[in-house]
Amino acid sequence: MENISAVKVNKKRINPEKMWPKLVLLPSILFVSVFVYGFIAWTGYVSLSNWNSLIPDMSFAGFKNYVQLFRDFRFQSDLRNMFYFTVFFLVGVVVMGQLLAILLDRKIKGESIFRNIFMFPMAISFIVTGIAWRWILNPQSGINLILEKFGWTPKWFTDTTVVPGLNIGHLEIGMPVALISLIIATVWQMTGFSLAMYLAGLRNISDEIREAARIDGASEWQMYTRIILPQLNAVTFGVIIMMLHFSLKIFDLVYTMTGPGPNFVTDMPAVYMFEAAFKGRYYATGSAIAMIMLLVVVIFIVPYMRGSKGGRT
């Protein structure tokens, strides 16, 4: 009986090796719970209140702030801009990343130099990028000093033209021409990320596959479009998700380069949120914008996380 009791006591003893990882992670779990999920919950609570002045007013307003937002011309413009910016930004980053990765994968001379040049923009702050491209694409200076010699002086981020300019109510639902300047700057800065991803994927593809394709009579175009690039679908999916997360909440580059722009043609939800909450003191409205942005990000990120988990299993 004493031996049985001793065995039971040993079973109840805490295993230090299992407890140490939990104790080490406990502070991080507490900080994340408070400063991430706790603040998200607080933001959601404020978005349902009437706190739109310096004086806190936490009386319940329901979804009034959300309804007013979707009726607001500026927020409607923000959603339109975010859609077009995201689509063309993702296409630009994926296509440029693939092209540059394919060129570098051909083991050209000075590959390391070109690789560093293409990836250098990623090391620059978005604020620096915004200021630099604001000068480069300034309608009165920068690249226009060269273009005007050819009879072409685009307005870049000051152009209020919307193509094709179809109207739904007061909103033109086409593509704002001024967004092109933002797309150029962001593609320039973030292409290095997709380049690194695609180059790593290409280097993991066996040369035997390429040789077999050439022996079968496939041209270089057919080899890449039908054999090589389809094997990089997982890389493409990862690049799209990461860049999608960036584009949906872009703020600093837009704020320093163009701001909301005339008629809000370059405005983004994050810029509107900042100005509503920290300049206009419309805290409930700013919180509502933040919650909408969070919901949009979650809609795209959660399926990726589920897919990644399924892929590991």
General description of the model:
With 313 residues, the chain is mostly helical. The chain has one domain: MetI-like (MetI-like fold), CATH 1.10.3720. It is built from 14 helices and four strands. The chain has helices spanning 2-12, 16-47, 64-71, 73-105, 111-119, 126-136, 144-147, 179-203, 207-215, 220-228, 233-248, 252-257, 269-279, 283-312; strands at 162-163, 167-168, 171-172, 175-176. The chain has a two-stranded antiparallel ribbon with strand order 1-4. A two-stranded antiparallel ribbon has the order 2-3. The radius of gyration is 26 Å and the shape is globular. The relative contact order is 0.13.
Record the SSE blueprint:
Layout: H1 2-12, H2 16-47, H3 64-71, H4 73-105, H5 111-119, H6 126-136, H7 144-147, E1 162-163, E2 167-168, E3 171-172, E4 175-176, H8 179-203, H9 207-215, H10 220-228, H11 233-248, H12 252-257, H13 269-279, H14 283-312
Antiparallel strand pairs: 1-4, 2-3
Helix pairs in contact: 2-14, 4-8, 4-11, 6-8, 8-11, 9-10, 11-14, 13-14
How would you sum up this structure in a few lines?
Helix 2 (16-47) runs antiparallel to helix 14 and helix 13 (269-279) packs across helix 14.
The CA-CA distance between the termini, in Å, is 45 Å
**Helix proportion of residues, in percent?**
55-70%
Mean pLDDT: 87
Q: How many strand segments?
A: 4
The largest pleated sheet is described as:
2 strands, antiparallel
Keywords:
313 residues, mainly alpha, MetI-like fold, two-stranded antiparallel ribbon, 4 strands, globular
